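Comment on both lines for my students:
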Amino acid sequence: MLREHRRFFLWAGLGALGLRLFFFIYFPEVTDDSHVYVDLAGNWLQHGLYGQTESGQIVPADSRLPGYPAFLGVMFWVFGVGKIRAVLAAQILVDLGSCLLIADLARRMSAGRWAGRVAFLLAGLCPFLANYAGTVLTETLEVFFTALALDCAVAALNRASLLGGASLDDASDDEVQAPWPLWAATGASIGACILLRPDGGILLAAVALYVAVAAPKGASGFGRESASLKRCPDTNLGGNRAVENASISSRRFRPFSGKRFRPLRALVVAEMTVIIIALAPLVPWTARNWATLHQFQPLAPRYATDVDEVTPRGFNRWVRTWMADYVSVEEIYWNVPGDKIDVEKLPRRALDSAKDATLALIADYNATQQLTPQIDARFDEVAAQRIRKHPFRYYITLPLVRMADVWLRPRTELLPSDPRWWKFNDDPKWSAVAVGLGVINLFFLVAAGLALIFKRADIRYVGLLVCFVVLRSAFLGTIESPETRYTLECYPAIIVLASAMLSGRRETV
């Protein structure tokens, strides 16, 4: 695909690079989380201790998984500690790699290189991916390894379908190759996702669930593609004929007896390969936490708290009884403790039950601006009252609204736009930017949705993408601080679906 369309990928790649350089030059971002990652990386590199600096002392920490600090540590080792611009430049290159992976994924899933070119263009010109490439956060690397994991999984499913199809009976021994290396690569990529963010495990759940439930329902192999492979044999494994042109070593991995592929045993091998390799990196991390911090922590704390930091569970539970959008995250959630709670900024639903107790509690908190155990317990009592009165809203309505908010909100959290963009009381330029980004986001989502309606039959293994997006969205609905960046990991799937809709036709080459 790259060789045959050099000019397209050259110009589209230059456009993608230019967009990322724009954000790199004008909107580089170092957030509070960025400072935590930089501190961890610097201490790890300079002192050999994975910990945070507190009162001049380095204290062992487990508040963040080691994936992104390890990346920063490598960059600091090469370019010098604190060289943030070098980190952002490297992330731009990683993000361009993500665009190529998304293009390859679209080509494999949509049976045509035209879909791959459309996907590369959409990914390259996506302002949301470009914006986070200029930010010291995990999102760029998370998107890269998510796209890599999905691409490897689809390649493995294609190979499994080939082995499971009728064409195997006519194949020679030299034409048979089990897809276990691709499953191993899938597991390794998912393992990298998990080391970057704890919620990377959602991708593992999606792949494992799809392989176990959906894939075996197809013909002979894992997927439903053995028949379509005979129609489009050239589009499965790198654009060449999967069987005739594959470079296969003389040594074979033969976990199955006989020539015929056994789907059940193949499924077990695939599942176990992915799961074991994906979770293996957590073993030394868990052992380190047990030995150093004397606690069993295989991932990271739910609220990214330090070892001696108390989680205000009552306050968090109260917030979940009314919070539905990112505005409240910025104006209320992130400011507590330490700042006053502005009652005027609370939505009306936050005071529609237990109003007097809530107002009295907020007044007592505002007096000290500290979440003492007593104050936190009172928040928990108010939350319990509100849940009893509105259980459907707490368990169903609010999670659904939070999911809608993280998907539909204009992705301006890293830009100067007012989070209350719909009031249009911001600088006209930034109000226009918010509306424009909202329209672009809606374009991606609508195109992906239409693909599921009209092009579903043309997209191989579409259930894998849908499973991942649904599981991740459901998870985001359960947390009380919805941020739009948490859906960015789903954008490889969204772009692949959108490219299938916009490519217009199937193409075999």
Remarks:
- The CA atoms of residues 26 and 134 lie 9 Å apart.
- Strands lie at 51-54, 57-60.
- The radius of gyration is 25 Å.
